[in-house]
Amino acid sequence: MNQDYIKPDNWSIIEEGFDAERVKSSESLFSIGNGAMGQRANFEETYSAETFQGSYIAGIYYPDKTKVGWWKNGYPKYFAKVLNAPNWIGIDIEINEENLDLNTCTEVRNFRRELNMKEGWYNRSFEAVLKNGTEIAVNVRRFLSLDLDEAGIIKYDITPLNKDAKIVYKPYVDAGVTNEDANWEEKFWEPLEVKKGTNEAFVTAQTFKTHFKVTTFMHNTILANGENINVSPSTIDSTTDKVQYTYGTIIAKGQTSSIQKIGGYTVSLNHENTLAGAEKVIKSAVALGYDALLQNQIDAWAKIWEMSDITIEGDVKAQQGIRFNIFQLNQTYSGKDSRLNIGPKGFTGEKYGGSTYWDTEAYCIPFYMATKDQQVARNLLTYRYNQLDKAIENAKDNLGFKNGAALYPMVTMNGEECHNEWEITHEEIHRNGAIAFAIYNYNRYTGDYSYIPEKGLEVLIGIARFWHQRASFSKDKNQYVILGVTGPNEYENNINNNFYTNYIAKWCIDFATEQIEKVASEYPADHKRVMDKISLSAEEIKEWKKVADNMYFPISEELGIYLQQDGFLDKDLVPVKDLDKSQRPINQKWSWDRVLRSPYIKQADVLQGFYFFEDHFSKEELKRNFEFYESFTVHESSLSPCVHSIQAAALDKMDMAYTFYLRTSRLDLDDYNKEVEEGCHITSMAGTWMSIVEGFGGMRVKNDQLHFSPKIPKEWKGYSFKINFRNQILKVSVNHNETTFTVDSDQDLNIVVNGETITAGKLAQIN
């Protein structure tokens, strides 16, 4: 834990007291989104101290030219930036002719932020003394509509406390924005058109290179004590990329002046005419009005929470943590559009770039399968199917592979690889396995096999072809090996025979072979269509199987463990408990050379394989490998604590499981890795959900049935969650005395609890 200023609360994220040192962290933590767009919790008014301005639109990106000191063949030509979108929230404010700026105020008191996760809004309030002696109270509420997802709403209230005040509002829309992480300090937006109306304005701009067109809009209403005073702007200032209106008002001491601002984006992905689309959005939002828009927001979030909430009794910090994670996941991805995916920072920052990593398949799909309609997860799989041609092109053009071998990108926006680190781009090839595993996992959980003959089989074949060609035969070992890789543990690069990579490569080939046979038998028309398209022969499959059946796995017979890679035991094996805390996190304190030579593990690696393929190993094997590798794991990846929590629970190490749960659930809230100001770790938040459902709840799917082995941390009185399993809603409630299973329908559901089959109906209780 590196910060502890967020107040414990069951349903809200709360900050009290103004501290400039916390501003950027809070901008991340209080971010809001609605699946179509999102923004950091930047101040609407001027703020002259350090801040990280960021608003983002789903699916909009820029191919920023890769910047490296030494170019290597096959290097991605660009790094896809998640673009800082035009600013629509801005409102410059003058009070008695002085600019409101918390950095220059004489005093700021009673500062409070609240992100109300239950109802989906962000609120900021404070009292301030300006240099001119005017004292004011301010309350600002902002939300991004889930129903009208191209619109956001701000209600900014100002009450003068010690004298009458002349208040000047200067709302604006501005396309003259830049990215914090631009490689070449380029501007990414080209202004096209400015349009001004009575109280509304529009700036249309397009991205350079990718030519996404976006109309950014605003509509302003000025109120006194809640009543519209029908004020028109006194001046209108505009440039090619910015429009700013000025509204002058006078308000008596103790009375409240307000501006309501509707703003947002319409994009060419969804509109042939973005300007006409923006005008339509404004018309719809104005017709509803602020109160109805807010109520609709509350209702929409109530519907989301009805299915996805996890309750925890007796541990407020644990409860706050899981709800924060679930809230951010739902803000980031709604599942409506198969062109979109789940970026590692969501709408909270720009680091990493890209719209998807292997995180989606490895961590996020289980959450969306269980808390949404199965079509949402299917859309995430369809995203990869639609980019199969690019994956084949990536393997062919960058690595010299042939015959339809597919290497999915580590980072992508449109199917092209766009990560700019060699060891990630070309060595961390295990991501191919996670994509195949997600297809298996989707079928296992939903029972919907149709995706495989319709789309998934082609993906599985492309991936199997890749692994077949990527492996090489070792005469010394008389087995197939995979050389020069980076496993999930990115603190080892260019190593040989990473256990996880080799294991999932073998599994992918075996699984693809099984599915070819099943589709041939049960879906002959689809089988013929696919075989005609890709020219797959029985001889080629035989060659695949030769690799899979003779894959090498590094093992220590003495320790009874799989080795993370061939040379792991050659390292100076000093456990993490003996590492000076002043040296943490090592990725910020050590040279990269020292990190690579150390035994320290960034995240679950061998244990990632045990997580995916739990049924392939005995409990004793898990215990030996867990106890060995956890002792060297520094958990400096957000993806690490959740896997360890699940496995600790499976091994009845409940204190450890709880500690890991708290770390994954409060990773950002408590800033464990000292980096939350760059944005939140959205994809790992799905792992927090898994820590409870799969960890403490022990949920597994075996032989088309749900299995549970419920456990409860001693710190909790009880917990509950719901899952949608094959269109039946099952609620699981656990306390120290009993577990109850309730089906939300008249149809019973057979489940297995601690090895015993029971029938869950309106109520089933296990003591």
Automatic annotation (TrEMBL):
Gene3D superfamilies, per the entry: 1.50.10.10, Glycoside hydrolase, family 65, N-terminal domain, Maltose phosphorylase, domain 3
Domain Glycoside hydrolase family 65 central catalytic, residue spans: 323-690
GO molecular function, one term: hydrolase activity
Domain Glycoside hydrolase family 65 N-terminal: 14-268
Keyword annotations from UniProtKB, A to Z: Hydrolase
Pfam family, one: Glyco_hydro_65m
Protein family according to the UniProt entry: Belongs to the glycosyl hydrolase 65 family.
Protein's recorded name: Glycoside hydrolase family 65 protein
Natural source organism: Flavobacterium quisquiliarum
